[in-house]
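Tokens for chain A. Residues wanted.
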């Protein structure tokens, strides 16, 4: 499983070559941004079909414009034109509850790295025909051990879907000590190199895209019924993934979707995985409307937030803000087809709302669960998350068991166990030790630093 330094360097450098050798802007590696790390619209995105209203463009012109935007996003985030070979392996299988099977899996991602994942699916004895598939993208500090990851995995499998949950870089089995909910996360480290944040964000994009690839590789999954759900940081990731990966049909964002403007929330953050990559996309122009336009061309999107969410500064993103973004997106897209819809819960803060009745009904309408229809979702009962967490001794950050946050959710379904963390480990410890160089943030960071420093000082 170990790759040579040459192969790893080539893997990281590939997106630059694939983009025709043109240079990415340099948005930095997190922390307080410098003035030169903010970007405004650049040629060719400030003229021609890029600035004409969508209704004035032919379908072919809109497709060509959108393809150029997608290519630029991938270039700025170092996402390769061709995804790496999946090279997936199922290490073992277990059943966390009756009717649900869970596979311990690894698959390849960008830069020669690998992703550990737990893939939940219905017991094959219970289903006939193809299944929808959903990739779950965690929030900051989350991983496949997070309560909402394994709860969602079991819930979606019971409903009749396949769900991929995985460890983001620096979390879970991709953490040097196999820690869950490490704070700060390893990938929060500020690194003073020109493209660090863009490369980190690109790796996170490919992690999610390869989750889609894994679903498409499963014979029981219908490739036309694949969705993604993302929470917080995962909503940031997934909103961009939906914009650049047309293989995805439906996208649900919870605690996010606030793709705002210059010097606003995402531009001025200090996290390498969000602020630098978002600033780099400033070369496109109106980033929020562009991302939502590209998502609309791909398929439906649902954005779920609480109006008391201080994490996402929802006071700065009220319904009028979303309405204005929606109007700009309609003008850009040329129609309201597949345009994002929203729900805003009063008095609610940061949470994974896709597990509630609204979220599950929306997913069913878009992806068509194999075992549950709308009536079955409503009849499945609900579990109050804070009560369930305490009764099952499930780990959660104290600030998130609050009733206005994750603890106050009434999640669809009853009788779900708290899965012990050891059961959610994909690799036996001896195998994990062998694969540290292709799993861990510190390994990715070391080789990425070498590539960045070589690029910075090469004439």
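Reply:
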């Amino acid at each position: 499983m170990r790759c040579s330094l040459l192969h790893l360097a080539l893997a990281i450098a590939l997106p630059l070559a694939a983009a025709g050798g043109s240079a990415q802007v340099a948005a930095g590696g997190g922390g307080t941004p410098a003035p030169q790390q903010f970007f405004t619209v650049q040629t060719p995105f400030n003229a021609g079909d890029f600035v004409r209203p969508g209704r004035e463009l032919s379908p072919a012109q809109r497709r060509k414009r959108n393809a150029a935007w997608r290519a630029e996003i991938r270039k700025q985030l170092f996402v390769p034109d061709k995804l790496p070979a999946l090279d997936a392996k199922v290490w073992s299988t277990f059943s966390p509850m009756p009717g649900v099977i869970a596979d311990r899996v690894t698959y390849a991602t960008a830069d020669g790295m690998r992703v550990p994942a737990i893939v939940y699916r219905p017991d094959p004895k219970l289903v006939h025909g193809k299944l929808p598939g959903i990739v779950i993208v965690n929030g900051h500090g989350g991983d496949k051990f997070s309560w909402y990851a394994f709860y969602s995995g079991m819930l979606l499998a019971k409903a009749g879907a396949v769900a991929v949950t995985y460890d983001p870089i620096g979390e879970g089995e991709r953490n040097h000590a196999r820690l869950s909910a490490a704070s700060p996360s390893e990938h929060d480290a500020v690194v003073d190199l020109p493209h660090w944040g863009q490369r980190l964000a690109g790796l996170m994009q490919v992690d999610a895209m390869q989750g889609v690839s894994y679903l498409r590789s499963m014979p029981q999954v219908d490739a036309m019924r694949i969705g993604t759900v993302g929470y917080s940081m995962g909503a940031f990731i997934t909103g961009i993934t939906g914009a650049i990966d047309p293989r995805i049909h439906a996208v649900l964002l919870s605690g996010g979707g606030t793709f705002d403007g210059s010097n606003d929330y995402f531009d001025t953050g200090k996290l390498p995985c969000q602020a630098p990559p978002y600033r780099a996309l400033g070369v496109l122009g109106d980033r929020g409307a562009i991302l939502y336009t590209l998502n609309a061309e791909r398929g439906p999107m649902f954005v779920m937030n609480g109006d008391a969410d201080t994490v996402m500064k929802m006071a700065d993103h009220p319904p009028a803000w979303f309405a204005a973004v929606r109007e700009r997106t309609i003008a850009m897209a040329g129609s309201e087809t597949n345009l994002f819809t929203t729900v805003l819960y009063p008095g609610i803060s940061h949470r994974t709302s896709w597990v509630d009745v609204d979220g599950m009904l929306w997913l069913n309408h878009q992806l068509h669960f194999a075992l549950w229809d709308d009536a079955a979702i409503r009849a499945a009962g609900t579990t109050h998350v804070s009560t369930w967490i305490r009764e099952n001794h499930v780990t959660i950050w104290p600030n998130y068991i609050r009733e206005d946050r994750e603890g106050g959710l009434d999640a669809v379904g009853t009788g779900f166990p708290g899965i012990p963390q050891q059961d959610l480990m994909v690799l036996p410890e001896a195998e994990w030790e062998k694969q540290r160089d292709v799993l861990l943030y510190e390994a990715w960071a070391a080789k990425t630093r070498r590539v960045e420093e070589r690029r910075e000082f090469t004439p």
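The longest strand covers residues 221-231. The two ends are 34 Å apart (CA to CA).
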